[in-house]
Amino acid sequence: MSRTGQRPPVSQPSQGHKRNQTSSQQGSGSSRKTGIKLMANAGSPQQRAEEEQRLRNAANQPQPQASLSHSTKQPKLTSLLRASEYGLQRQQGEAEGWKSAVHRYISLYNQAETEQHVQVLSDFVTDAEHCERLRCRLERLRERELLRGVLPAGSETKAELVRVNESPSEVSVLIKLHIRRRMEQRGRFYMEERSEYERLWLCPAGKSWDVMRVEPIISERRPRYGTSTENWMTVDDYTFSEGERSTPSMPYLNYDLFPQFKHRQPGIPYRRDLVAAYADRWWNEGNPAYELFEVNCTNYVSQCVFAGNAPMNYTGKRESGWWYKGRNKGQESWSFSWAVSNALTHYLGGSRTSGMRAESVFSADELQLGDIITYDWNGDNRFQHSTIVTAFDAAGMPLVNANTVASRHRYWDYRDSYAWTEQTKYRFFHIADLM
Fold first, then answer.
1. Predicted confidence (pLDDT) at residue 371 exceeds the cutoff of 70
2. Cα–Cα distance between 156 and 152 in angstroms, integer?
3. What's the whole-model pTM score?
4. Per-residue confidence at 56, pLDDT binned at 50, 70, 90?
5. Residue 231: burial class (beta carbons within 10 Å; 0-12, 13-18, 19+)
6. What pLDDT sits at residue 245?
7. Max alpha carbon distance in the chain (Å)?
8. Three-state DSSP class for 417?
9. What is the CA radius of gyration of the chain?
10. pLDDT recorded at residue 52
11. In this structure, are strands 331-334 and 324-328 parallel, antiparallel, or unpaired?
12. Residue in 240, 197, 218 with CA at minimum distance from that of residue 340
């Protein structure tokens, strides 16, 4: 199999990045000193003396109550929490009640990610089932990185409060975690990022609050019958028939949406650099030019491939081709293969002589930038997740981007995901160099 180009070197973050992100900013609730700043004013000595006397009198006057209230008012918990802020918040007395417990949870979560050991968090969280789930994930992560020769060189965790439900006896909080891990391998560094959701249930215990239950939202594990009202969520079982595989539709571009490609010539190179650039630009948000799906991983991968010059295979039939047209009068206009991992897997595995073509390869180390990996978590040949190759580690193994559970430069095997099981299977697709 021919290969073109070389894998780009892994970018190295600045040397000023510390092992743990423990620095914190000065809290806004700290006491504020008041004083008088003397200014150099023009005028006669008598005028300057009068001005200085006026300022001294003003300094001896009591401050207005509103100003004092403003300077000492404790700010509410913002929607953005940092793992490194818990100690400072606790010292200043600004984190109280269940909010203090959430701060503490984020701090311990970050420590567990850094140390790759669950005990620091299991001593705080009373949910034994989740602690066991987290223990298995961190053990897989620790074992994998030992085999790779990778050491975590630092970790930072932020959390955004998405939804809060309060009652006198219980508080449930939906948080969005953003984890940044700096990895060292063979003297080289790279940054791995991911965003995921968790729901916490907290109950009062005397003057404090306990985290009673933790439920990770495992969006990579697509439900067989989705909870969304979107019809496309229920087509996870869709597969191409043998007849459709042997007689694929002719490639066709959606000229209405993309007129700049109307006169393109055959043999256009697949721009892997553009694929990686697009993937890094939109990894943690949706491009407003496209629909944003509740489970967005395959839609995101299709956009990345299209950004690299892959032509659409437009048939107008959702069960064939690979195409996107958006919505028309409330009706969905895209193929299953554009938005559903199982359908994209079968489309890439089909045989065709023109348009977007892919070759199924045996291992991840055969992939290049812009190639695709799909994931079957249960080993039942129903693929539920898709990623795009955007970088390589020091050993030449792929790092991938994904959406839904937004991930950037994540190691390709996903053993650090709650979705991963011992039955997980992968399909590796090398996209053709010429379209």
1. yes
2. 11
3. 0.71
4. low
5. exposed
6. 34
7. 101
8. coil
9. 27
10. 56
11. antiparallel
12. 240
